[in-house]
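Incident review: delayed structure delivery

Summary: a single-chain prediction request sat in the queue longer than the usual turnaround. Root cause was a stuck worker, restarted by the on-call engineer. No data loss occurred. The affected request and its eventual output are reproduced below so the record is complete for anyone auditing the incident later.

Affected input:
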Amino acid sequence: MDKIIIDISVVICTFNRATLLDKTLSSFLQQENLDNISWELIVVDNNSTDNTKDVIEEKINVFNNKLIYVFEPIQGLNSARNRGVQESHGKIVAFTDDDVVISRNWLNTIKRGFQKYNVDGLGGKVLPIGDIKYPDWFIKDGLYRIGGVLVERDLGEMVKTLKQNELLPIGANMSFKKEVFYKFGMFNLEKTYIAKKKPIWVGTDTWFIQRIIRQGAKILYLPDMIIYHPIPTERFNKRYLKNWYFNLGRSFISNKGKLRGRRFLGIPLYLYKQIVLSFFKWLLCIVMYKKRIGFYFRLQFLQNLGSIYECLINRSLQ
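Output delivered after worker restart:
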């Protein structure tokens, strides 16, 4: 990692999304209150085959050389994130996605947040772009909320310190002191999201934050640190959701590491209870014609099934 010489390095990892990336880069040009902030924008091209490089190079002069193109041939989101950290020159490393719109004071809010609070990392809101039309069967809020799969995060209007077992920031809007990566290590390369590949490890950004909190890092939620993110229509496809929740179960149990406590056939006893309960609640909803709630419990069943599957095939957990 190079010598730290500026305030903030922003890292965007991208793969074959040149058109979306172009809009995101344009939103950075609308940033305000930057008089006392030195910054750079590092775009890590994760082996794209489209015109990603051309889109970036066309904008380098517009950014007054603050825009940096980096090519990372090793496929995987965490490989690209780690490369971005390695190439960065900032005291703070901030991450966002290649399809977002940045709020006008985003960089200023991040710098002020680290100046005001003695923390290792900050996370903020990720709000949907536009008026989202949710399918009738999709439960967005409440006890039976279908959560996680939508790229959004809103933890309210209060600044608060986050704990490892609650909702945490997501990769579209998170930032860390660069020293965090020296102290706690980099993103996990063994389990990383790779576009179009299986298994799709879900929540690798959350894993990282959970791990560093366990190791003693302090992470703060800032409600005025805002990113706007589109919700892909595929996220409202039932088949997509079922696959996503199954992979969520795999990811969740894999992230725990060595299994502890009582087990039968290598599977924690609590998982037997959870999968049986979710299955019978799903069946009960079918009988009672509560299809919307029934789909929620079907997803819970698939998540538990994914966890059990991972226990059976992943010998490193035993």
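Verification: The radius of gyration is 20 Å.
Action items: add queue-age alerting; document worker restart procedure.
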